[in-house]
Every structure is written in structure tokens, then in C-alpha cells.
Amino acid sequence: MSLKISTPAALDDPTFVLVTDLVARCNQAEHLDLPISTDLGRAGDLLLADLDGELVGVATISLGREAEICLCVDPRHRRQGIGRALAVASAMRANAEGCPEPLFVVDLAAESGRVFVARLGAQLGFAEHRMDLDLTRVPAPLAPLAGLHIRPANFDDAPTISTILTTAFGDPPELVGHFVTERLASRFHRFLLAELDGQPVATLRLIHEDGWAYITTFGVHPNYQGRGIGRQMLCSVINLLRNEGQGSIRIEVETHNSAALTLYESCGFIRRRTFAYYRLARDMVY
């Protein structure tokens, strides 16, 4: 038995089909919706496991404020060390990118995933609900909030966006700054900025992937929370996306964030899935 882990710079058409088919089989086997996108980014975001010439596993690495790893192994080839080999290779890749403690993403509907992370010795970091917009539950448009203006952000807004996010979430400024700058330069990401009487107060990011629009990186400066700015911005963005012809809209929220959950549900979002993020132990690889 010969197992090879590779990091392709690009996928040819036949390999692309093999990857998408493998992810689909894994999802179907346990009724999952693993966040493994076929819309590949830069080289190194994807790792492939090849067993005696057959594609048997795939892992993706999402690099942001932290590295997030999601992998799947062909149900016919499990318990052969393939998942562990992919996890180790992915963790080493994340470490090379400056993320020594990456997060392993598990759809909590997957018993196999929960068992796997337990065997890795990974520790639960947090969990998030994935929420989809139910168009029948979208409320009537809100009355405009006096002095609030929401506009597309540009590259010059990077320091402002970073300050809002750092203040709202408490993440290290240098990591947030790099995260924001990199995504503002990407055509796949779109930031919006809310200003109240000319003062930047909130921001969010839009991603279009696999037919869905994801609302993410949504933060309101603590000094302006509780004034309805978050609700106004969210409703405005929903309206913007729908006017663009985008009806499939998603948002994610940590399970313990009751205030955000209440807001999102009141704007028409319903809980669909829950994903847990397990931190991979340093001694698993290093």
C-alpha cells in the first residue's frame, strides 16, 4: 500500500471531477455538507491523498485570522491512516503559514468526524451555526437610521476596517490587518463599511461561493453597539443581494452568541447546520 499526499498548484479537469465526486460521496454517506469548496484559491489550499493511484482523500486549508482545515476520506478507505496523514500534512502547511495551532472543522452531524478528532487529541475551541435565509421570513424594510450610510469599502479603508474588527472581536491587530488587506485585494471578497454621521462604525464581508452569498466578518464597533446599526446593516445587505439576483444567502454565528442569533433569526435566517472547530494539539505534528 502506497499513500502519497500532494499539494497541487492547479487541478486539471479530470482531477477536478475526481475531487468533486469524492466530496459528494462523503457528504452523501453521512448526509453532510462539508465546507470543502471546489472553488480553489491559491496554490497550497488543497491537499490530495492518493492510495495506489486512486484519489481517496482531500483536505482544504482556509487561511485567515486562523487556519481552518476540513478534510474527508472515501468511506471505503477509512481507518487506514489516510485521515491522520492528511491532518498532519495540513497542520504542517498551516504552521508554515504562521498558524501553529490550526482549527479542524467538523460537521456535528458526522459521527465519523467526532470520532476522528477525538483520536487526534484535538480540543474543542468553539462551534458555529450555519444559518440560511428563508425568503418567506424576511421582514419589511426598516425605516432609515438617521445619519447612517453604508458603502462599498476600498483598499484605502483597510486600516479602518481592521480597527473596527480588532475592537469588536479582540483579535491581534497584526493578524487582522493582514487578513483584511489580503481580502480587499481579492476579487472574490467584498467589504462594506457603515458610517454614522461620517464616523466608521461597522463592517462586513461578502463572499460568493458555490452559488451562495456568505455574509461574514460582521462587526460593530463596541461604542456603537445597541443602537440598531447591526440590524440596519444586515437588512440593507440582504436587500442589496436580493436586488442583485442573489436569493441563496448564508451567515454563520457562534452558538453561544445569543444576541447575534436573535438578530439573525429576526431578519429571516434559520439554523441549518452546526460546525465545531477543534484545535489541533501542537504535539500531534511538532
Structure notes:
The chain is α+β, with helices and mostly antiparallel strands and 286 residues long. The chain folds into two domains: 3-127 and 277-284, Aminopeptidase; 135-267, Gcn5-related N-acetyltransferase (GNAT) (Aminopeptidase), CATH 3.40.630.30. The chain is built from seven helices and twelve strands. The protein has a twelve-stranded mixed sheet with strand order 1-2-3-4-5-12-6-11-10-9-8-7, with helices on both faces. The mean pLDDT is 91.
Please state the overall shape, judged from the principal axes of the Cα atoms.
globular
Q: Which fold name corresponds to the CATH topology of the largest domain?
A: Aminopeptidase
The chain-level structural class is alpha+beta
How many distinct folded domains?
Answer: 2
CATH homologous superfamily assignment of the largest domain: Gcn5-related N-acetyltransferase (GNAT)
Task: List the helices and strands in order.
Answer: EHEEEHEHEEHHEEEHEHE
Tell me the total number of β-strands.
12
- State the end-to-end CA separation: 26 Å
Secondary-structure arrangement, i.e. CATH architecture of the largest domain: 3-Layer(aba) Sandwich
Measured on Cα atoms, how large is the radius of gyration?
Answer: 20 Å
The largest β sheet comes out as: 12 strands, mixed
